[in-house]
Write a structure and sequence with these properties.
- With about 220 residues, the protein is an alpha+beta fold.
- It has 2 domains: about 110 residues, Beta-Lactamase (2-Layer Sandwich); about 70 residues.
- Helices cover about 45% and strands about 20% of the residues.
- A 5-stranded antiparallel sheet has the order 2-1-5-4-3, with helices on both faces.
- A hairpin with a 5-residue loop joins strand 3 and strand 4.
- Helix 4 packs parallel to helix 6 and helix 5 crosses helix 7.
- The longest helix has 29 residues.
């Protein structure tokens, strides 16, 4: 049997642990408000397991009993310490994404759990708005570029040149950039008004760099 001193010491350690976890739960709640509910469970008191709840989205209260997941954690010492991003639902049917973190004492027993429940409906609604805003399929037969006439062809050529080398225009090496300029010159692309400025901007370099490259091309 445990001595009274050992029991009192264990109880004091547990209270201290719960107090520290309460501060963590509060910090997480303030950081992720209002989209994420943060709940601290004391698994040593399953009938009143909920010790703190921040950004209350589930309608629970401090003093409510442990969840089924909490009971599984208590009964199985091999239960995973962290279960992240599993699908869940709030009592009113809203979809949620949850993460549950089990906390052990010095003896390796689960004594607490810190849980986060994210309300996905907010983000799903936002995604629907973004999808609708970005929808351009109503008149697919119409295509337009806001670049001046001739410059879009120039830009397309630069993009195609980079794609053939499995890279992007801004990632072209110096020798590749000079080869590109040679091709643009030979193809008459650089006779288009503002061609040099457009190429420099699309390659992410200065006009001076383009002119230096040109001198190397001419040589």
């Amino acid at each position: 049997m445990k001595s009274t001193y050992a029991t009192d010491t264990a109880d004091a350690e547990h209270r201290h642990l719960i107090e520290q976890l309460q501060q963590i739960a509060r910090g997480l709640g303030e950081t992720f408000a209002p989209f994420c509910e943060v709940v601290l469970h004391d698994l040593t008191d399953t009938d009143h397991a909920v010790k703190a709840i921040h950004n209350n989205l589930s309608g629970r209260e401090a003093g409510d009993p442990a969840t089924d997941l909490g009971m599984q954690r208590i009964s199985n010492p091999d239960f995973p310490e962290v279960i992240a991003n599993y699908p869940n639902r709030f009592p009113d049917g809203r979809q949620a994404k949850s993460t549950s973190i089990g906390i052990r004492n010095r003896q390796g027993e689960y004594v607490a759990a810190l849980c986060m429940n994210v309300d996905l409906t907010v983000f799903q609604n936002l995604q629907n708005v973004l999808n609708q805003f970005g929808n351009t399929a109503t008149r697919p037969e119409i295509r337009e570029s806001l670049a001046p006439v001739g410059l879009q062809t120039l830009i397309d050529y630069v993009d195609d040149f980079a794609a053939r080398r499995a890279t992007t225009p801004r990632a072209l090496k110096t020798d590749e950039r000079r080869t590109l300029l040679r091709e643009l010159k030979e193809g008459g692309f650089l006779e288009v008004r503002r061609a040099i400025d457009t190429v420099a901007q699309h390659l992410g370099v200065s006009r001076t760099t383009i002119y230096i490259d040109f001198r190397q091309v001419d040589n």
